């Protein structure tokens, strides 16, 4: 059970010209086609939650593997996802008794982080818009008083 090869792939959607980079790395396990396809499917499903203009700037770095080789109760598997988009970095690391469960939990946590990031961005935009509105109201009230 050696270290599996790194695989990098570019996804191009048929619906519109969309591309993103997904790097998958296996540690202490072999990267089988089943694991590879499963990770690809889970990471491409996260793309719909990202609000980005340049979808080529989306980069997933995924590492899956065993944590150690000496557990008495069985193997522990780990899934780590680093997502780079629009200059932002989101990171998730999950450990489970099943590799596929670790990938699922990591994907769910990543989607939650993406949603929190989007809410924060929208909140800051609305706060700025409110401040601008109050400034404009103040200017218009002052203009009316002078005339």
Architecture per CATH nomenclature, i.e. the level-2 architecture = 2-Layer Sandwich
CATH class assignment = Alpha Beta
Biggest sheet character: 5 strands, mixed
Uncertain segments? 8-18
Number of domains: 1
The shape is elongated
Rounded to the nearest angstrom, the distance between the terminal CA atoms is 83 Å
Order of helices and strands: EEHEEEH
According to CATH, the homologous superfamily is Ribosome hibernation promotion factor-like
Strand percentage lies at 25-35%
CATH topology: Double Stranded RNA Binding Domain
Q: Radius of gyration, rounded?
A: 22 Å
Oligomeric status of the shown chains? single chain
Number of strands: 5
Secondary structure class reads alpha+beta
How helix-rich are the residues, as a percent range? 40-55%
Total helical segments: 2
Averaged pLDDT = 81
Strand order in the sheet with the most strands:
1-2-3-4-5
Question: What can you see in these coordinates?
Answer:
The protein has 147 residues and is an alpha+beta fold. It has one domain (7-110): Ribosome hibernation promotion factor-like (Double Stranded RNA Binding Domain, 2-Layer Sandwich). The protein has helices spanning 33-46, 99-146; strands spanning 7-12, 19-27, 59-66, 77-85, 88-96. Helix 1 packs parallel to helix 2 (99-146). Mean pLDDT is 81; it is low at 8-18.
